[in-house]
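Dear support,

I submitted the protein below through the web form. The confirmation email said the job was done, but the results page showed an empty box. After a refresh the structure appeared. I'm attaching both so you can tell me whether what I see now is the final result or a partial one.
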Amino acid sequence: MTYSIVARDPQTGDLAVAVQSHFFGVGRLCPFVRAGVGAVATQASVDPAYGPRGLALMEQGVPPQEALAQLVAADTEQAIRQVAMVDAQGRVSGHTGDNTIAEAGHRLGEQFSVQANMMLNDTVPAAMAAAFTSATGDLVDRVLAAMDAAEDEGGDIRGRQSAALLVCGPDSTDVPGADRTWDLRVDDNPEPLAELRRLVTIKRGYDGAFMSAGSNLEDLEQGLLQLADATGGNPEMAFWAGLNLASAGNIEAGRKLLRHALKVSPNWAELLRRLPATGSVTQEVADQLLEK
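What the results page shows now:
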């Protein structure tokens, strides 16, 4: 009842899973990823256990083809399952059970697999594979292109409801929660892919706000204002970008961005007054930013 993609970026080693379904909260059931190990998508009559079990086998060095074969052989209901895996070496495997609901199928590619079941048309996997391989941009851009292609082919026969995106880097830090560079979920929305893209844009805005010291101020300000519009006027990104610019020595640029937050609420000024006590900004910078 789902379409998804598992993929590895051959340039960065990043691992990703993206999924969409007409089902509430698909992100809690289908996608699994572990840095330096691999990614798994489990769907159709979903058994979430394929995720952790598949990752555990791949972490032991078992190739995805063998890992999936082991799990399928032990599953008395494998005929109604659909599962795909990619490991940290880019090896892929896929399984579509004989009794999954049509249209259903998967397609293996160079370091990726796309899979779909209960689709309106049988052209979905081919369209996803073509979109992923021809898309430009980073891994997130490319997996989203594959998702859009599935929807363009008719997508889930029942419609749309939820989506998710998980991405890990190539190396584990052994710090719980630190390895996922992307972890976005849309649990219930009439246009989950559009909402997922909105969240991707916002995350990139936050990432840029926290790395803004070397940014062109005019471009940064314009981008942050556009993101504020997209988030209903949320000034968070402008506040932190301004703080970063000021801490890097550009007080005037920081003050300019801070004004956008202060227009929304004076509480942002109060927050700034409290930050020196945490060590996240010096008292001198905070005082300069708060000058009229």
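Response: this is the final, complete result; the empty box was a page-load delay. The longest strand covers residues 2-8.
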